[in-house]
Amino acid sequence: MQVRTMGRQKILIFIICITLCTILPNVSVEAAKEAKEPEVLVIYTTMDGKMNEEQRYLDLLIGHFTSNIRFISSDDVEKSDLSSATHLFYFGQYSTQLPVKFNTLFDEYEGTIVAIGYNSEKIGNQFSFIDPKHEVTIDQISMKSSDKLLDITKMYIVEIKVYEGSEILINGRMKEGDVHYPVMVKGNGNYYYAFDTVDSSQATLFAEALHDVFKIEHEEISPGYIRLEDVHPLVNPKPLQEIASMLKEKDIPYMVAVIPIYTNQITGKRSTFADSPELLKVLKQIQKDGGSIVLHGYTHQFRASETGEGFEFWDVENNSPIYFPENQEYTLKEEKDFSSKEDYLNYINNLKAYEREYIETKINQGIDELAKYGLYPLAFEAPHYTMSQYGYEILSEYFSTYVGQVQLSDKDWEIMDTSPYITSPTFLHGMKLLPETMGYIKPGVEQAVQKMMDNTGRIRLSRDGILAAFYHPYLGAEGFKELLDELDKLPNVSWIDLKEMDVWVKGKNVSIHTVNGEIIKDFNRLKIVSSSMEAPLYYLSQFVRFAAWIMVVIGGAAVCMFIVFTFRLIMRNKQIEG
């Protein structure tokens, strides 16, 4: 009887082992799938079949959740492109007939689909829960599940009929009317967004809804940063020091956007931090106390513009990337100006080669110039936020982190925007964007601080929207105190410290990265310092000043010893005489 029981136990154990061996691998696979970063495919329909600023702004929004994003035109997409995608976005910017393959393109796709704008009825039957009608105008949108509401400029959306079983996430209406129109709808596990454009003026609620799309829970805490802007060698160190003391007292980390070289636009005279030892002393103390240095260009100018006012990585006069020296006039050619496509491509490649050399030279000069004085940049901010798409690609080879707003088109520098939250879009080629969202205090503008604070309401519509502002120290410490007092009232803000982030900078001669709040740097000091005469002369003057003080101390000590010796000698003589 006991033998039979033992035999049954062995059989039972064997069955359990087989079952576990069968189940556990599947559990591991499912866990791996859940842990895997979302893989997104964006199919877009545009007039010319090319990406534009609308897709790049969508890139900003999706880049908050994943860096694994691909963009393909609806003319070029194939069924095989969908095979690995966990999420699929279709962005129809205008109403048109789609290729016949769209009738069955999504039949076997099992992931989540988000349709934006037009043509949702032409991409299979996944969007049978809505029926597009006409266009209507709205000037207000709101989340259906909360009191989050956003006033916008009057815009068109696609009017849709919503069928039973679907869920309205965002509603829209005209403030003066009572009719509500569905703006974002969920049905059959898919989503539809009725705007045919995506930008910061109206996409904050869409950005919040994407948390539901990706099923990713982010804390309802707003990261934030304060950036002190345009600090160059001729800046008055006193207000900068006063502002830094305020931030240190409140234990708020911050950033300082530094321009290493100031060039007089009339005389051409260059000023470096060797010419401003007091300012340099303040900056080094800032770096030690809690501030992080951001490289804000090399000279922040192009042609005869003033440092801090001009552009550096964009030719504003020709509204193009910098393809030629600043003293050379030119007219950009088009493909029709060439006898063959090959000649045109060679022309474009030559332009891009010049742009690369120009940008790389400026970046390396900027990093070297700061490093030679003991300042180590942890991020980059392009002057006036202007830089070409190829420029971002070049920059990504040198910096891991970008600060500010971003230019979204090579056609016009004014086509720029900001993200509501931290993101890593594909067009930044791996760089993390810490966007600026609140603006700055403009001289002469009434209630400038209040206008900045008004922007926080829109930003906070996204649960982890970033509250980021900048201030020019030349405006004085009093103006900054007013801004800081208001920022201090904001609840649930986590101030960003670049030193606590995983950032790196890889210049030609200087390598910088951070570890547990410490700046780790590696460079050839002799090579960096000897790259120009200003730094050696500065360090020589510092040494001479130090040596002079030593001589003064030694001389003073000798005088004191002489006086003491003389006094003792006099006293001794008096004792002998007595």
UniProtKB/TrEMBL annotation:
SUPFAM superfamilies (UniProt xref): Glycoside hydrolase/deacetylase
Entries under InterPro entries matching the protein: DUF2334, Glyco_hydro/deAcase_b/a-brl
Record keywords: Membrane, Transmembrane, Transmembrane helix
Transmembrane regions: 546-570
Protein's name in the database: Polysaccharide deacetylase family protein
CDD domains the record matches: CE4_COG5298
Organism: Solibacillus faecavium
Pfam families: DUF2334 (PF10096)
